[in-house]
Write a structure and sequence with these properties.
By secondary structure, the chain is mainly alpha-helical. It is built from 6 helices and no strands.
Length: 136
């Protein structure tokens, strides 16, 4: 009798796990959905989908791409403060990533807020933007 109840519990647990996993969209599936919304110009839906990708805790490369795309969508939606927040979080997590620096600078330029850029590092040699030669 004990053997039967253990077997029943095991089967019920497997069934529960199968239903739970199939009910969740994977980060990769969510990424494809977000990319399609983005491509089709449904920016509100794209932003929501990019956020869902990040909530799904994807692996590092997918997370980086999702943050870059989310920042771009926020800029196109004129939600510049959100774009700056996403850019800052990406720069903090990957300070040597040029694309992160670029997206943050692009978002900050939309706000005409350049004070934070002086402390932002351009590359692994930690060259300050404030020391870069100005283009006359």
């Amino acid at each position: 009798m004990r053997h039967i109840s253990f077997l029943t519990l095991t089967l019920l647990w497997i069934l529960f796990l199968t239903v739970a996993v199939s009910g969740q969209e994977t980060a990769a599936t969510l990424y494809q959905k977000a990319a399609q919304f983005d491509k089709d110009g449904f920016l509100d839906e794209a932003a929501e989908s990019w956020e869902q990708v990040l909530e799904a805790q994807p692996e590092k490369n997918l997370k980086t791409l999702a943050k870059l795309r989310l920042s771009s969508v926020y800029i196109r939606l004129a939600e510049t403060i959100k774009a700056v927040e996403v850019g800052k979080s990406l720069v903090l997590s990957q300070p040597d990533l040029f694309d992160a620096q670029f997206h943050l600078g692009n978002a900050q330029s939309k706000l005409k807020n350049f004070s934070d850029r002086k402390s932002t590092r351009l590359n692994s040699s930690h060259t300050d933007i404030s020391r870069m030669p100005s283009s006359a």
